[in-house]
Amino acid sequence: MKLRTVGRHFRESLKSLSRNGWMTFASASAVTVTLLLVGVFVMIMMNLNKVAEDLEKDVEIKVLVELTAEKTEISQLEQDIKSVNGVANIVYSTKDAELENLIKDFGENMGLSDQNNPLRAAFYVKAQVPQETKKVADQISRLENTHSVEYGEGKIEKLFSFLNGARNVGIVLIAALLFTAMFLISNTIRITILARKREVEIMKLVGATNWFIRFPFVLEGMWIGILGAILPITIITFLYYNLYKIIQPYLEGEFFNLLPLTPFLYQINGLILLMGVFIGIWGSFMSVRKFLRV
């Protein structure tokens, strides 16, 4: 297709938008509402996914060492744990350090500092893949001089199952919203094309190729998608910016945080714009296809 022809199609698509003002408004409104719903949902899901990742990263295995283990045996145990497949990092905590942490958590009023230290030294281990925590813990539990292994057995599996389920539900809902958007846009644009059915038929009969006829409609769909994305981008940017400024100060020091304003806002706004363009082009492409069969 020649560059001059492409330029003509761009001009024709813009003129068509103004000539069919109400239909353009209806199509853009449908895109706006759907993209706003999708954008808000994606914003929530991405932050929930961030929280899920933070929770997963916080999962660790506590390996209690036998009281009778000597320093050389403890060093050997550390090497053995490091050699276990799937271990990301390991931190050693002495008996005294464990006692200090316990006193810090429960206070000195319990009289722990007046007793002989009854605690065991421990290794704190994190798995490379949090979902494989149980597998790593089972391997460590079989090592020599390991008294016991603690990692929240039962609760961890339920947590991972819930997080994976929430992610899958989110993906399905987003896909359903996008499909609904494309269906609405396709039907709305089909009405616009129906009013110009005679024009399409005449162009087809005088020898115009399918792509020559289709291209202006595809461009119209692209413009409609862009117009429909402007308001959702504005609302979501305003909404997330203010929510972040209000909520984030309360989360400082906690084990999870909201996604930072940048690059998150650039990412989600770019995604909304791409979705708008995609569903606009797809809706136009699918709608005009049936009218090309003359």
Identify the quaternary structure here: single chain
Mean residue pLDDT: 81
Spans of at least 5 consecutive residues whose pLDDT stays below 50 are: none
Q: Which strand order spans the largest sheet, edge to edge or round the barrel?
A: 2-3-1-4
Helix content: over 70%
What is the end-to-end distance?
23 Å
In total, the number of strands is 4
What is the chain-wise order of helices and strands? HHEHEHEHEHHHH
What does this protein look like?
By secondary structure, the protein is α+β, with helices and mostly antiparallel strands. It has two domains: 3-56 and 158-292, no CATH class; 60-150, Alpha-Beta Plaits, CATH 3.30.70. The chain has nine helices and four strands, in the order ααβαβαβαβαααα. It has helices spanning 3-19, 21-58, 71-82, 95-106, 133-141, 155-194, 197-205, 210-251, 261-289; strands at residues 61-65, 87-93, 122-127, 146-150. It has a four-stranded antiparallel sheet. Helix 2 runs antiparallel to helix 6 and helix 2 packs across helix 9. The mean pLDDT is 81.
Which key terms come to mind for this protein?
alpha+beta; 2 domains; single chain; 4-stranded antiparallel β-sheet; Alpha-Beta Plaits; elongated
Question: Can I get a quick summary?
Answer:
With 294 residues, the chain is of the alpha+beta class. It has helices at residues 3-19, 21-58, 71-82, 95-106, 133-141, 155-194, 197-205, 210-251, 261-289; strands at residues 61-65, 87-93, 122-127, 146-150. Helix content is 71%, strand content 8%.
